[in-house]
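Retry 2 of 3 after timeout on previous attempt. Resubmitting structure tokens to design endpoint.
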């Protein structure tokens, strides 16, 4: 899937979400945006490295079913990167000298559960911790090399399903305005975000011998990563959301 087609689909989903919000019961709906940092772990970075972070942004719509449960859907964009040269995990990684950088564009939906009743006017609580989980799909458009002698460095793209989950805290600034701080992880079903994978579509382990014309294993590819796990990425950020009308008092409304 090329970038133009994927961007068009993302825009259609956003307009659809905003259309539903505009025609529904406004007190049940919110729109918002967020900004924060994103990080990746995989074959280049094993644990979150504060020196290799990227910016992340999101636009979303939310429906509040009651004072506890909400459904949130939207689009997120994150810059992800990693390089063996910055903080190699071992001497082999230093010799490998792989790197990547790129943009993850994700469409997703999550269910949120709020532990405290912060919406009701009768409640003295203006905040609530919450947890969330959901499903999504992302396209990563990257640029990088799998190792120092990579015969095919440059741009690539990877599509993958995602499972986002995490925690946060939400505060009611005003009756219509909400501030949240949230963080979480997104499990992918791909091992190729960093351009290091057993999949020959992303990583060529064989080359043509100029003498015999046969396909032979490139010795430089023997130690290149862990094929038994998948890549993850993480986020931490702040969101601001707006409800179009007075928040409906679910618990006390007759």
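Retry 2 succeeded. Sequence:
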């Amino acid at each position: 899937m090329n970038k133009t087609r994927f961007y068009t689909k993302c825009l259609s989903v956003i307009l659809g979400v905003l259309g539903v919000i505009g025609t529904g019961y406004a007190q049940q709906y919110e729109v918002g945006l967020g900004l924060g940092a994103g990080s990746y772990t995989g074959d280049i970075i094993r644990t979150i490295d504060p020196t290799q972070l990227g910016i992340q942004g999101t636009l979303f719509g939310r429906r509040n079913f009651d004072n506890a449960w909400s459904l949130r859907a939207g689009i997120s964009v994150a810059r992800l990167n990693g390089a063996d040269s910055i903080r190699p995990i071992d001497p082999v990684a230093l010799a490998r000298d792989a790197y990547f950088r790129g943009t993850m564009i994700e469409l997703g939906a999550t269910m949120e559960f709020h532990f405290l009743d912060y919406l009701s006017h009768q409640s003295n609580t203006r905040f609530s911790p919450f947890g969330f989980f959901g499903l999504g799909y992302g396209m990563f458009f990257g640029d990088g090399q799998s190792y120092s002698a990579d015969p095919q460095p440059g741009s690539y793209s990877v599509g993958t399903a995602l499972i986002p989950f995490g925690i946060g805290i939400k505060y009611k600034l005003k009756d219509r305005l909400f501030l949240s701080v949230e963080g979480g992880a997104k499990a992918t079903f791909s091992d190729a975000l960093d351009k290091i994978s057993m999949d020959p579509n992303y990583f060529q382990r064989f080359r043509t011998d100029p003498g015999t014309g046969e396909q032979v294993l490139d010795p430089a590819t023997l130690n290149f990563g862990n094929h038994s796990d998948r890549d993850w990425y993480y986020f931490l950020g702040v969101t601001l959301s707006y409800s179009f009308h007075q928040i409906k008092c679910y618990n006390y409304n007759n």
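Attempt log closed. The beta strands are 29-41, 54-64, 69-83, 99-114, 127-145, 154-172, 177-188, 206-208, 215-217, 232-243.
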